[in-house]
Design a protein that fits this description.
This protein is mostly beta strands and 332 residues long. It is built from one helix and 26 strands. The chain has two domains: 129 residues, Jelly Rolls (Sandwich), CATH 2.60.120.10; 115 residues, Jelly Rolls. The protein is 4% helix and 43% strand. A hairpin with a 2-residue loop joins strand 13 and strand 14. The radius of gyration is 20 Å and the shape is globular. The termini are far apart.
Length: 332
């Protein structure tokens, strides 16, 4: 293994991450046509509804029972970054906020002191298949920000820079790439401070093409996730798809695709360097804080659930939109 590569590992479900990231999962579902009620056409027989992660016929229902997705569930102490490359996600939360986003949009949500939300995947197309491709990334919050007020913002795809290079493209979701800066993250995020070097890049490299990652500081942890293609040469070393590669961020590293286009996600940032106490959707610094968080959720439900159904979806003919807790609505 050359000096640029610090660690090589097989990608699981979810993907292995490093501080300041807690979790990353890649969803690729080739859903069938919609049934007119935003669920899949055909029988759901043979699926463990409510916990369907098998990937039968190339798609999953997840925790949904009629519409795929994740009905109401709580979070506290970290942030979710949801990148929807294909398909759509319907968001609803305990603050009364809601939205439909997809086809390149990103939602950045700070759970902070506690929020419930649902993430459902409506199958809007009834004449064609409904492909869903998304990443969900969990970015930790430092102790000083664990209990900030919840916040969410939309990074609409029209506002996210996509750098067109001669041999591929770089979508700059967080941080900057060759002086091209992403939209601002949520205000209390670890990523809001430029010195923390947080970056999220979705990179497509043309077959036989090369893209170079710019140098960062030596105390930045940079991980490359190679999720589609045939081979990827990293500083001259050949890697197969479905692998993660932690590299030396202080080096200018060349990534070269093989005979097929290579798709990669890059996560990087300076570590927060604090203890992590994690139990499901709660991430604190100590076990005592975890217990207190669970007790508070049992008592308050983090504000309760203002929607009729835990798997709330929006009208099928509704376009992309965001409704914020203060009542502001943005239509796209």
């Amino acid at each position: 293994m050359n000096s640029a590569i610090k660690q090589l590992f097989k990608l699981g479900f979810p993907w292995q991450t490093e501080d300041p990231f807690l979790f990353c999962v890649y969803h690729l579902d080739h859903f069938p046509k919609g049934n007119g009620e935003m669920g899949p056409v055909g029988s759901l027989e043979g699926r463990n509804l409510g916990n369907d992660f098998i990937g039968k016929d190339g798609w999953r229902m997840y925790h949904g029972t009629t519409i795929p997705g994740f009905p109401a569930h709580p979070h506290r102490g970290f942030e979710t970054i949801t990148v929807v490359n294909k398909g759509f996600c319907d968001h609803s939360d305990s603050l009364g906020a809601a939205g439909r986003f997809g086809e390149g949009d990103v939602q950045w949500m700070t759970a902070g002191n506690g929020v419930q939300h649902s993430e459902m995947f409506p199958l809007l197309h009834t004449e064609t298949e409904n492909t869903l491709e998304l990443f969900q990334i969990w970015l930790n919050l430092p102790q000083k920000s664990k209990l900030v007020d919840p916040h969410f913002k939309m990074l609409w795809h029209e506002d996210i820079p996509i750098i067109n290079l001669e041999e591929g493209t770089v979508k700059v979701i967080a941080g900057d790439f060759n002086e091209q800066k992403a939209p601002d993250p949520a205000p209390d995020s670890w990523a809001a401070e430029p010195d923390h070097n947080v970056a999220v890049w979705n990179i497509h490299i043309n077959a036989n093409g090369t893209i170079r990652l710019p140098r960062s500081s030596s105390d930045t942890i940079r991980t490359i996730y190679f999720y589609e293609g045939d081979t990827l040469a990293i500083a001259g070393e050949l890697v197969k798809p479905d692998h993660g590669i932690q590299v030396d961020a202080s080096q200018d590293i060349a990534l070269t695709a093989g005979a097929k286009n290579a798709h990669i996600l890059v996560l990087q940032g300076k570590p927060i360097g604090e203890p992590v106490a994690k139990y499901g959707p709660f991430v604190m610094n100590t076990n005592e804080e975890l217990q207190k968080s669970m007790d508070e959720f049992r008592l308050t439900q983090f504000g309760g659930w203002p929607w009729r159904h835990p798997d709330n979806v929006h009208d099928a003919d509704r376009g992309r939109f965001a409704k914020y807790p203060d009542g502001t609505v943005v239509e796209k």
